[in-house]
Amino acid sequence: MSTILEKISTIEAEMARTQKNKATAGHLGLLKAKLAKLRRELISPKGGGGGTGEAGFEVAKTGDARVGFVGFPSVGKSTLLSNLAGVYSEVAAYEFTTLTTVPGCIKYKGAKIQLLDLPGIIEGAKDGKGRGRQVIAVARTCNLIFMVLDVLKPLGHKKLLEHELEGFGIRLNQKPPNIYFKKKEKGGVNLNSTVAQTELDLDLVKSILSEYKIHNADITLRCDATTDDLIDVIEGNRIYIPCIYLLNKIDQISIEELDVIYKIPHCVPISAHHRWNFDDLLELMWEYLRLVRIYTKPKGQLPDYSSPIVLHNERTTIEDFCNKLHRSIAKEMKYALAWGSSVKHQPQKVGKEHVLNDEDVVQIVKKV
């Protein structure tokens, strides 16, 4: 492991030394590709040896969505969990109070949302310091990340934490790059672009691919892509997670400073100890999770508004709704009746492919 870390540090040092201009772009691209390969080896080491015997941090997934609290030690993650979910997570005035993942659960707008208080991350966590790799591995399974920062020293911490998470293949508040990439048996590298490229050209793409020992591939760039975007697509193990930055301890700053903080994108100032601004935080959390609530209606009865079926924004068809209820229902379904904003008529007969909107009411009619 140390040899990989040494290789990584030498490459990083060389990248820091190299000037950025058109002449060195190819060289920097190669270095970035090498770095990405070494990082991947760190995340999943090659040999299939037995486990290390350390207790993992993974917690059973419950509820409709999962939110992880990431941050340096002693920024108020445990206090926030205790006050939001009513779960006791040990709180003390020294660092590293939380040593394993502490789960909690809140119900918001009818959806059950699991909150995970992860142990504090320190600089160098992506390289395995302070069991950081296990912590970040749990963060990869979350639907949303709450990055808890101390309001008195936020920006330096924010950059460091983003760097740690990015080193582990997590991309915060980004969309996957619009790049089509497919390996093939023969025919060389075929590069097409629908948008003018400022950074990538055929030689640079070929040199990055040769680092991965890929000599035949079709690539279509549908956006102005950078070398990092191309490497992300080739690696294929990147995870794109929305993130909200929580600036905690706002009871220690002035109103003027608070006004400035409010203008930062993806940010919510809170005070975990005094429970200030929790409603704003939960509202933004709901917006970022993009969950869709569907109410069920048994035949001849009123809809059940107390316990909605919660679907994720990408998968909201009638078929997904049936599968969430029970696997056998989709096969037995004849058609469905839907009420709400996704249909023109109330009710309307719909099939399996119909896409539902938030707070629609659905009644399933089975085959006789």
Overview of this structure, please?
The structure is a single chain. It is globular and about 70 Å long. The protein has helices at 2-17, 25-43, 77-85, 132-139, 154-166, 202-211, 227-235, 255-261, 278-289, 318-325, 329-332, and strands at residues 65-70, 102-108, 111-117, 144-150, 170-172, 179-183, 189-193, 217-221, 239-241, 243-248, 267-269, 291-296, 304-312, 333-339, 348-350, 360-366. The longest helix is centred in the first third of the chain and has 19 residues, at 25-43. It is built from 11 helices and 16 strands. A 6-stranded mixed beta sheet has the order 2-3-1-4-10-11, with helices on both faces. Strands 13-12-16-14-15 form a 5-stranded mixed beta sheet. Helix 1 (2-17) packs antiparallel against helix 2, helix 2 (25-43) runs parallel beside helix 7 (227-235) and helix 6 runs parallel beside helix 7. The chain is α/β, with parallel strands linked by helices and 368 residues long.
What's this, in brief?
By secondary structure, the protein is α/β, with parallel strands linked by helices. It has eleven helices and 16 strands.
